[in-house]
Write a structure and sequence with these properties.
Blueprint (H helix, E strand, L loop, with lengths): L16 H18 L3 E5 L6 E9 L9 E7 L8 H16 L4 E7 L3 H9 L3 E2 L5 E2 L10 E8 L5
Antiparallel strand pairs: 1-2, 2-3, 4-7, 5-7, 6-7
Bound molecules: coenzyme A.
Length: 155
């Protein structure tokens, strides 16, 4: 998944096996520290691993702070509603268990599939929140959009 150019189109460079494994180790450490993070996503009927989704602290240096929701699925799992289902579970955990007042989501302006998930789960975008990611070099991945949803807004 992390070495698939289609999955990585809006994310940046392809990951090596070592980089991908290191990110999983980081996810597990973050889970242990704070009790939430990136969950593995599996197809309920078969147990097949298809990607991950979950909640993360917004990185330092962004023009906003808070907790963001995100998702990444293997190409073969797109188009089935799995990301939306996982995202709704993430929102429920964030609002009901963590009692967050608001959850954010960020993606490149061109990542229409990810933006569609944001809209499906009831998130909204104010164009005034669009921003250039300071950690990304000049290019198509630099312009980002920010979506928000407040606790109590459920669709
Ligand atoms: C972003 C990403 C997770 C979206 O996946 P997705 O499968 O398009 O999203 P959903 O789970 O919401 O599925 C929606 C599609 O499934 C269809 N679908 C089928 N059954 C469905 C159901 N029961 N419920 C909802 N949608 C369903 C929808 O009609 C829609 O189809 P469409 O794409 O033809 O319009 C996926 O493209 C991805 O992993 N991209 C690479 C990583 C990435 O960019 N991550 C985001 C970084 S910010």
């Amino acid at each position: 998944m992390n070495a698939d150019p289609e999955v990585r189109e809006h994310l940046g460079d392809l990951l090596t096996r070592e980089q991908s494994d290191a990110s999983v180790a980081r996810f597990q450490a973050e889970f242990d520290q704070r009790g939430y993070g990136w969950w593995a996503v599996e197809v309920q009927a078969t147990g097949e691993f298809i990607g991950f989704a979950g909640l993360d602290q917004v990185d330092d240096g962004m023009p906003f702070t808070g907790v963001e929701i995100g998702w990444r699925l293997a190409r073969s799992a797109w188009g089935r509603g799995y990301a939306t289902e996982a995202a709704r579970a993430g929102l429920a955990f964030g609002f009901e268990t963590l009692e967050l007042p608001e959850i954010l989501a960020v993606t490149t302006a061109a990542n229409l599939r990810s933006r569609a998930v944001m809209r499906r789960i009831g998130m909204t975008r104010d164009p005034a929140d669009d921003f250039d990611d300071p950690t990304v070099p000049e290019g198509p991945l630099r312009r980002n959009v920010l979506y928000r949803i407040a606790r109590g807004v459920r669709v």
